[in-house]
Design goal:
Blueprint (H helix, E strand, L loop, with lengths): L1 H8 L1 H6 L12 E4 L5 H14 L6 E4 L4 H7 L2 E3 L11 H8 L3 E5 L2 H4 L9 E3 L6 H9 E2 L2 E2 L1 H14 L4 H14 L18 H4 L13 H7 L1 H33 L3 H24 L7 H14 L8 H7 L3 E7 L14 E5 L12 E2 H4 L6 H7 L2 H8 L10 E4 L2 H5 L6 H12 L6 E4 L15 H8 L4 H13 L7 H4 L15 E4 H29 L14 H14 L3 E5 L6 E4 L11 H4 L1 H18 L16 H30 L30
Parallel strand pairs: 1-2, 3-4, 4-5, 8-9, 8-11, 9-10, 12-14
Antiparallel strand pairs: 6-7, 11-13, 12-13, 14-15
Length: 689
Amino acid sequence: MEEALVLQALSPLLQRYRSENSAQSELKVKIFTGNITEKHRMALESVALSVGFPRGAVEHVAAEDKDNLLGTADLVIYYSCLEEQLFPSVLVQAMSLEKLVIAPDLAIIRKHINDGVNGLLFPRKNIGMLAQVLLRAVSNSKVSLSGQKIASAGKAHAKNLMASETIEGYAMLLKNVVKLPTDALSPLTADEIPLALKQEWKWHLFDDVKHLHRVNTSLSGYKILQKLEQEWHSNQMENSSLSTKNINDAFSAIAWEEQRVNEVMDIKRKMEEDELKDRNDQPHGTWEEVYRNVKRVERLKNELHERDDKELERTGQPLCIYEPFFGEGTWPFLHQSSLYRGVGLSSKGRRPGADDIDASSRLPLLNNVYYRDILGEFGAFFALANRIDRIHKNSWIGFQSWRATARKANLSTNAESAILEAIQSQKHRDSFYFWVRMDQDPRNHANKDFWSFCDVINAGNCRLAVLEAFQRMYGVHLDRDLDTLLHMPNDGDTWSVMQSWVLPTRSFLEFVMFSRMFVDALDAQMYDKHHQTGHCILSLHKDQHCYSRLLELIVNVWAFHSARRMVYVNPATGQMQEQHHLSGRRGQMSVQFFSYATLKSMDEELAEEFDLDHPDRRWLWPQTGEVFWQGLYERERSMRQHEKERRKQQSREKIQRIKSRARQKTLGKYIKPPPDDTVVSNDTTTVDL
C-alpha cells in the first residue's frame, strides 16, 4: 500500500522526464522492502503500469543488495504511515553516503532531520506534497544544487547521529545493570553528563588507527606472514575435507537398522518394568506408625542433610575465612578449598553446588536493596554474627574480599599456612591479622596518613561523620578535633583496607557489637537526605553506597583503640610484621570507649529500650542482629518456669479426675458352671442289712 502511494506521488516527475522512447523512462525507481511475495510483486507492477511507468522502470531490490542500491541512488525516499520508535537505519546509511533524504514528518524523524537543512520532509497524511518536494529537489535529470548542499549537510550530521541517545542509553545501563564495587566512583547519570560530551563522538581518538592497515602492508614481514597464513589455510581445508570423508565412511558402516531395533527393545523393556513395579503390593502401616515417622522426620529434618568433604574438613580446623560476594560476576574470584566459604549477600546469584551461606536468610535486613548496597560486606559480618554458634564453630574467623583476589592481593598457600601455624601456636595471642595494606592501595597515591586517606575517599567529610557518630553513640559532646579523641598515629606503619583480615571469633563478636551501634549512628545521621535525594556527604555525586567506604576502615580504629595486636601478613610469602607495636601505644588509645564492659552495657541498654519501650521510630540497630539483655533472659526463664508449673498442674488435675471418677456398682455375681466331664448325682442309695 505504501509503495503504491509513493508511485502515484512520482507521476508528475514521470511526465517531466519522459524519454523519447515511450517504452523507456529516464526515471528509474528501485524499491527496497523486506520479505516480498510474488503476489505483492505482481500487484505493485500493475500499479506502476497504471500510473504510467513503462515496464522495467520499477523493480524490487533484495535485502542483500541494499548497500549497492544506496551507493548508486541519486536520492532516497523513505515512507511510513505509522509512528516508529527508532530512527530508521536505512536513513542513517543514506545520509552517511551523502544521499539526499526525503522522509515523512514522523516524530522520531523530525527529531534528527531539519526540513531543508539536512534533509527534506513532507506531511505524512498528505502524500501529494511529495511530488512538490521532488520537483524542488530534482533539476535537469539530477539532484538540484540546493539538494546537493542538503545532502552534504546530512552527511556531516550523520557522523554524530544518535550519539546522544547511545551515550544516555549506556549511562542508564551502567546505573541499572552494572553493580559497581563500593570503592569505585559512580558514573554520571544521563542528566548529569555535559551536553558537549553528548552531542558528538570523539573522532579524534581514532586518528592514530586510520592508517593501521596501510602501515601493516608496508612492513617487510607482513607479506611473509600473509603467505604463511594462506598455506596454513589451504592445509586446513585439505585436512577438513579428508576428516569429513573419514567420518562419512565410519557412519556408513553402522548398521542403522540394528541400532533402531535395539532402541525399540530398550523402550519396551523399560515400560514393562514400570508396569510391574506399579502392580507390586505396597505394604501399608498403621496410622500410629505414620504419625511416629512424621514426628521423627520433623525432629531430625535439620540433621538429615549429608555433610560434604569440605564441611567435614572445616569442622576440624581452627580458622574459616569467609568471602562475601554479590552476583555471578564475582564467582571467578572465590576460592574452592575448605579453608574458605562463600557468603552470598543476595538469595540470587549463588553458586550451584557450593556450600555458600545465604546472608539474606540469616539477616532479613539484607533483603532491603538500600541497606544491602550501603552496608556492602558489613552485611555479611552482621549476618554471620547473628546466632553465630549455629553456623560457625571455629575458634578463629576471617574475611577476604573478592576484590583482593581480583587485584592479586589474596593469601597464597604459604601465607595461609603461616597464619594457621601462628594461630595454633598462639604466637601473637588475641591479634588482628591483615594482608591488604593501605599504603599500597591505588587510591592512596600520596601515601597519606589514616584520617587524610579516609577524607580523600569520602569527599573530605570522614572525620566529621565519625565525630558526629561517636557523639550519638556515647551521648557526649566532643571537640571538633577528632584526632584528640581517636588518634591514629602516622608512625611509618600501615593499616588494613578492603576488609581482608583474621581475628578470634570472640573478638569478632565484640567488633560486631561496636559496629552495630556505630552503623546505627551513621544511619540516623544520613538516612533521610540520602534516601530522599541520593546525595550523601561522603560522596561528591549520587552514590548508593554512601558510608560503605568509611566502614571499610573502621576496623582499624576498633583494633587500635581496643588494644589488639595488629600484624601484617605478606600475602605472597607469609612473613609477619607487627604494626603499631602495643608497647608504644600507651597514652594514645581511647580504651574507655572500646572496652568490652562499656560496649556490653551499651548493648544491653539498647536491648532493654527496644524490649520494654517498643519505640515506633525508624531504628536500624534492632535489625542488624540479636536483641538480648539480662531482663529478657530472666523473663524467658520465668516463662519457662510458669509453663512447667502449668504442665504439672494439668497432670495433677488429670490424676485427680481419674481418681474421683464415678464407678458403677456390681449388678450381680457370676457363678462359673462346673466342667462338662464332672457328674454330680443327687440320688439316694438304700442298703439292706
